[in-house]
Amino acid sequence: MLAEEARRDGSSMKTIAILTMLFLPATFFSTLFSMPSLGWDQPDKIALYWACTVPVTVATFALWTSITQREAIRILARNLRDSLREKRKKTVVDRPGPGRWLSRRKSRRRVRDPTATS
To answer: Per the confidence metrics, is the pTM higher than 0.70?
Structure first.
């Protein structure tokens, strides 16, 4: 029973934190742009408000996700890396490496026999 209440409290706190992350950047920029000393009162500045607010909000959520979901992101990255390696192994054609290529080229050259007369 106590564990269930703690889980509900944790869920409620997470919801409050997410809503705060959503509204806090917009609140900050609206407060900043409402300062009369900065001269932001022209109507054409609304585009600047959104150009500042949206990227900061997205960056806030990206940072929060990367911190809270770090292990899930590592597992996803590891699975993606492994699948790309497997795909690469299947598609690589057996080509000679640089050492093998040079040794083939050397063997094709004609070597003059110093005892032979021309």
So the answer is: no
Compute the 3-state secondary structure of the chain and give helix, strand, coil in percent, each to the nearest 5. Answer: 80, 0, 20
How far lies 106's CA from each of 93, 98, 111, 113, 115, in Å?
23, 12, 10, 16, 21
**Measured CA distances, 19 to 22, 52, 55, 64, 117 (Å):** 5, 19, 16, 12, 93
With H, G, I as helix, E, B as strand and everything else as coil, classify residue 26.
helix
pLDDT for 7-30, tens place per residue? 777 778 888 888 888 899 999 998
Q: Residues 51-90: pLDDT tens digits?
A: 999 999 999 989 988 888 888 888 888 999 988 888 777 7
Q: Where are the beta strands (DSSP E) in 19-95?
A: none
- Amino acid identity of 93? V
In the chain, where are the structural domains located?
A: 2-91
**Quick check: helix, strand or coil at residue 94?**
coil
**Cα 33 to Cα 111: distance, rounded to the nearest angstrom:** 82
